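Record type: monomer structure entry
Structure origin: computed from sequence
Chain ID: A
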Amino acid sequence: MDLVNILLLILPSAVLAGIGYLVRFRKAYWLISGYNTMSAEKKQKVDVAGLGKLMGNMCFALAAIFFVGFALLFLEQPLAGLVFLGASVPVIIYVLIAAQKYDGNTRRESGQMKTGAKVAVGAIILFLLLILGFAGYMIAQGMKPASITWENDTLTIAGSYGLAIPRAEIKRADLIDALPEIQRRTNGSAVGDRLRGHFQLKDIGAVLLFVDRSKPPFLMIETNTARIYLNLETPEKTRQLFAELKP
């Protein structure tokens, strides 16, 4: 793991843990968003000690979630890492709701929450749930195998980053047992062993991948403008496609 990755792993968690310590134990309540911009009159209606304890604990929880989530990503466990990072959304929603009991500005004299406060909190929760839902959808899409068909002398790769390759554009097609070393993803998705989109390979450069690394062999196709690596649901189907592509 290089220095950049180490910093990406440690820095977000360290910052959150530091903020949590300052807010909860050093009473740095000016770090609490929203409270720090209130007028003096409104601040008097806030149980800032209780709010500070809640927000400090949230920062500690998020620091732990981010550390484990990013560690899993760096250990090439992307699905587990993304799920772990997604757990931050329920934590934030819980804290957002729980924080309201410490803010007297959001409640009537009867103790009930004001309508405007309910709408604001509901809007934020809805926004967070939409983000979580979108992330879940993208993960689910990334886990699906690429739809690859060979019809009418044209190889069609459907979905994200897909393309159509007529036989006349295929300069070379090889069947290989192992992928070259992947240096980085430039514009694509990587969920578990499923890789889709633009990647950089060692000693080769920019390529398109539509592969499940757990199911070799892989078909390498070279055209005038791109190099593509792909495989199908089973090794037998990949070999059959290779046989059909050969001149």
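Annotation 1: Helices lie at 3-25, 40-43, 48-74, 78-86, 88-98, 115-143, 235-245.
Annotation 2: Residues 147-245 form one domain.
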